[in-house]
């Protein structure tokens, strides 16, 4: 399989990576089989995080790759912890970062991590403090490179002024990409690779789209109009896929990986046959006329997650190290807000985690 350089590093990743966010849910034995099959077929980027499955995902990855470690670009993420009530929140303080790195190394059964990524920025810790802590591990060879994830354009510029960033992870799909245009342009100008996740929007951009999800399914909060739009898009793509002898996911993945600035796409795989299907998607050369057809479909999308928001109640308000107002949301996460926002307010949050105003 083709390999693409991550940033300006000496790491060359497969254009498709195995995303392990939910792999713990299918059981250790099956998950290990899938990981090893993916590596056998040429997928060499394995992405996980300390928070996935409470560490179970890292444990499974560690068990799967411990005897073939040199064949893998091992990417994990840190910076998310559970608060006193068990909700996820950001903590990139030096103490928390050191704890996260050491625990990840143990779970992953390795003595080095190829790409250690900041999962979400922490508005309560100066980035320089986090960078200095991570550089201790970089200097000792325990971490080879530091990447970013779920970061705003302004935050990216600040981090890039402090450390050489090889990659940035962002959600990128038909209904979620326009808000990241500035990040894409910045990364292209700095030779920073984009690692795209949720390319199929959690399975909604496949032929198996559901209209309803149980309340414990994260897709249950996606507005019905977005689900309907996914059905419409899939309906437009299906005859094109059939004409090419491909599935709709194969068509989408191939189109996305050849978008300007995209270096790698992360895809979750819960069955062995998914591995084969996704690898085949990368090995196919899409004709230019087919690409133009898909481009036209993408341009015609009017309803997207870029324009959506969800509501959160503010639990707590305080000032951070720079004197900016920070709030803790009911979901546990922290964001920066204007000075007029107070505890108890209900606010609108964009799908990329930014404050949009009071509700």
Describe the structure concisely for a colleague:
The chain is of the alpha/beta class and 359 residues long. It has helices at residues 28-40, 56-65, 94-107, 127-139, 153-160, 181-190, 224-244, 248-257, 272-283, 288-299; strands at residues 4-5, 12-13, 16-19, 45-47, 73-78, 80-82, 88-90, 113-118, 143-149, 167-171, 193-197, 262-267, 309-319, 325-329, 334-336, 346-350, 355-358.
Q: Could you characterize what this model shows?
A:
The protein has 359 residues and is of the alpha/beta class. It has two domains: 301 residues, TIM Barrel; 51 residues, OB fold (Dihydrolipoamide Acetyltransferase, E2P) (Beta Barrel), CATH 2.40.50.740. It is built from ten helices and 17 strands. The strands form four sheets. It has an eight-stranded parallel beta barrel, surrounded by six helices. Helix 1 packs across helix 2, helix 1 runs parallel beside helix 9 and helix 8 packs across helix 9. The mean pLDDT is 95.
For the largest beta-sheet, the strand count, sense and barrel status come to: 8 strands, parallel, barrel
Termini Cα gap? 49 Å
Mean pLDDT: 95
Radius of gyration, whole Å: 20 Å
Our count of domains comes out at: 2
CATH architecture of the largest domain: Alpha-Beta Barrel
Derived structural class: alpha/beta
Q: In CATH's first tier, which class of the largest domain applies? A: Alpha Beta
The amount of helix comes to 25-40%
Please give the order of strands in the largest beta sheet: 3-4-5-8-9-10-11-12
List the uncertain runs: none
Strand content: 15-25%
Number of helices: 10
What is the general shape? globular
Tell me the name of the CATH homologous superfamily of the largest domain.
NADP-dependent oxidoreductase domain
One letter per element, helices H and strands E, the order comes to EEEHEHEEEHEHEHEHEHHEHHEEEEE
